[in-house]
Amino acid sequence: MNEVGHLVVVGASLAGLRAVEAARRTGFAGRITLIGAEDHLPYDRPPLSKAFLEEAGVPIPTFRDEKVLRDELGVRLMLGAPATRLDTDGRAVVVGDRTVAYDAVVLATGASARELPGGRDLAGVHTLRTLDDAVAIRAALDSGARTVVIGAGFIGSEVAAAARRRGLEVVVVEAAATPLVRAVGEPMGEVCAALHRRHGTEMRCGVGVTGLDGAGQVERVLLSDGSALPADLVVVGVGAVPATGWLAGSGLLLDDGVVCDETLFTGVAGVYAAGDVARWHNPMFDRPMRPEHWTSAAEQGAVAARNALEPDAATPYSTVPYFWSDWYGSRIQFVGIPGADEVRVVDGDVRSDGRLVALYREGDRLVGALTLDAPAHVMKYRGLIMRGASWRDGLAFAAERRSGAAARPVSRDLDTDAIVDR
Amino acid sequence: MRIIVDRTRCTGLGMCESVAPDVFEVNDDGELELRTATVPEGRLAEVEQAVACCPNEALRLAP
Ligand SMILES: Cc1cc2nc3c(=O)[nH]c(=O)nc-3n(C[C@H](O)[C@H](O)[C@H](O)COP(=O)(O)OP(=O)(O)OC[C@H]3O[C@@H](n4cnc5c(N)ncnc54)[C@H](O)[C@@H]3O)c2cc1C
Ligand code: SF4
């Protein structure tokens, strides 16, 4: 096995940064080059739809300053330099007219926001994926924009919550009858929609957007039911697509992401992938996944780098996916997988604010848990899922937590076991 | 071994708790509490794994 002399990481964000840090932590003393399309140093995305939007002046959530990257981590930075091609035969990353040879490469180009057709033509219409997007959206909120969010996913929902917090009028338009069905399942999507309504955000579910209208600047959002919503700011939150365009013709298997085995290996010598761009086989649930979650991206970055440097000692990345989202001062946390046979509310009341815990069953296994404002509960379920707990174990644990909790009104417990079959 | 939490980095996500629940616990306010200040007998590997999995690198072990 040849020693790796030069590790190249493409994508200078969370997964890419963690790859670089892990490489150094394992004692790798060779050269590292970090190639990123954006001009910015690696920064953290989750705050962009949360604290960053709440008021002007919240600082940019940069992970490390340039000195740390260059001097402490010994990284050669190529920023504002989108890779244009991967030459797997010649073992090189092509960046426009420059060629960067690698011994091992970690692909961490993440995802980009899906756009509405024609959306780019009007001012005031934004997706939210990058710092530049967030800066533009924040400026519009600062000027008191009437806001329409297209797509009631997590990012769109967080933008709506941030706009409401400033007292602005917000409408969320969602094509599906219930939001977030793919992310958390139907019953819990309903709970999330109710959270919006309770905080004064208007929800228009089951209607499509047929067009955006305005002279230069967006003025109206046209809906499939014939109505129109006045708008100064339109935030399009209709999902993200893995940034694999530059990998066309590389010989890598691309299928909604870079397809990897359980060690994040692409099957092509020296090439590993991590983060939102990677669709890897997760041994924990024995299926391929591309979760688009912060935690997976961070952990995969580290695993991919270690495996790229020492392929003979490669370790699998097995995980119970986890994400969180903050709306209206509430924290939604989800562990596991949502495509379940049954979702059961085991604590709290779906109709009111306050703590809520729901469990997800697949066959006779506990596969997921969603909590609302129950930070002390969620990781206990993650632990159970990680240890392969049965559905019965999950329910027993929930019952124990409930009875162990401080005395709560009986009326609340009555509907806590509402079964929602799908 | 002592367990050290860098409060400026910890965001109470609780990944550590899912790995070593008898050592780490996020409370109802979303803050991390240590259930023991030092690594319990025979549990070093588990705690090391918890330290490694903190996405914010907020945990450290010190002699
Ligand atoms: C607004 C927002 C809020 C979020 N909130 C949460 C949350 O609350 N909880 C949660 O779990 N997750 C959240 N996420 C998801 C989380 O941020 C992502 O999972 C994470 O950023 C993925 O990291 P990554 O490094 O894989 O990809 P990315 O962060 O997408 O980074 C990829 C980088 O690669 C660069 N790149 C792309 N193509 C090229 C190329 N050809 N050459 C060079 N560089 C390239 C991009 O410019 C980008 O900088 C949120 C995401 C967004 C956008
Ligand atoms: S995993 Fe890290 S950030 Fe999360 S609670 Fe533990 S120490 Fe804090």
Biggest beta sheet summary of chain A: 6 strands, antiparallel
How do the strands of the widest beta sheet of chain A line up side by side? Answer: 22-23-26-25-24-27
Structural class of chain B: alpha+beta
Based on CA inertia axes, which overall geometry of chain B fits?
globular
Shape, principal axes of CA atoms of chain A: globular
Write the CATH architecture name of the largest domain in chain A. 3-Layer(bba) Sandwich
Major sheet description of chain B:
2 strands, antiparallel
Q: Helical content of chain A, roughly? A: 25-40%
Strand neighbour order, sheet with most strands of chain B: 1-4
Mean pLDDT of chain B: 90
Strand content of chain B: 15-25%
Q: If you compute it from the alpha carbons, what radius of gyration of chain A comes out, rounded to the nearest whole angstrom?
A: 23 Å
**CATH H level of the largest domain in chain A: which superfamily?**
FAD/NAD(P)-binding domain
Q: What is the CA-CA span between the terminal residues of chain A?
A: 51 Å
Low-confidence stretches of chain A: 406-422
Give the largest chain-chain interface (CB within 8 Å). Answer: A-B, 18 and 16 residues
